[in-house]
Amino acid sequence: MAKREKTQFSGVYYITTITNDKEDKIYYIRYRDGNNQARELKVGKHSEGVRANYCNQKRNEILTKQRLGEDLPAIAIKKKKHIITLDMAAEKFFKEREMQNKDNAHTQSKYNNWIAPELGKMDIDLIGLEEVRGLQESLVKKEYAAATINFTINLLHAIVNYAIENKLSTTIQNPTKKLKQLKVDNARDRYLTKEECQRLLEAVEDEAVLRLFVRLSLSTGGRLETILSICKKDIDFTNKIIALKDHKNASSYRGFINNDLTSYVNEYCKDLKPNDKLITMPVRTLRRQLSNIFADLFNADLDKNDRKNRVVIHTLRHTFASLLAIQGTPNFYDSKANESPRYQDYSPLREIKPREW
Q1: Which keywords has UniProt assigned to this entry (predicted)?
Q2: Which of 17, 170, 275, 332 has its CA 20 to 30 A from that of 233?
């Protein structure tokens, strides 16, 4: 018999299992019936939307029936015919903000990628601290940055608050308030030398999409989301300028590219329409493929938690800034530059020959 693991609730247990090649949990409740006989009831799987606090409520219902012979009014109310899921609340949340928030679609995509798979189908009233902590732990296991995980929890916090304020949820206190956020250390010392940049370019030589992504990243210093949002219409081939979107700060700026990259991009997107994105590879695929290349070239002997020295996609952005500083742009790294969109129209950039990537 598989070992039952305790939860924070009395009489609620789970066993670890595998569903569709992914780790899963099967929840059980234990109680004594009217004859004082021990009983165990299987409630369901984590992948089916079952959570520990829901199991606790089911167990309390059973104990209440045994004690009083009927449902309490509060329990009867819980058996509502119309359930509001987190997905339903999120849909209304984003719909209401689409006119005010320029970055609404981008934020919604983060909800769809990070929150919806874990909690989207759940009754919003059943999302408690354990579910929020489970989301946080899931993202940690997937090795997302602490800042990304904190952003995700804050987004969930905003959606639940919206649901409470608009009477989509009967929750009294937002469960995310009780969760301690992760400590963020944004310091990254690692950047690529010119020789390492060349090795990376050689490694992606036969992968057109990866090569384009790497070249654009090294030439503009754009974040991952910035590079992925570039459309053909954003490129001024005559003046060798790319219009870039800073999704983090909800602003726009310009990037400068050299003759070689301009010709390369022009050839790459010759069959694209103006609104077509240059890079359409799924972000997970892009991350995975580049992560494998970084592991082979630079990260083989480093601890997976060594954020300061491991090469990641963001290292390309850091490389752009660092090499510009080495090249003669020391004010590129001052505190004001770090607090504002870093790669806007710095006057020193106009005097520097674009990197020969």
Answers
A1: DNA integration, DNA recombination, DNA-binding
A2: 332
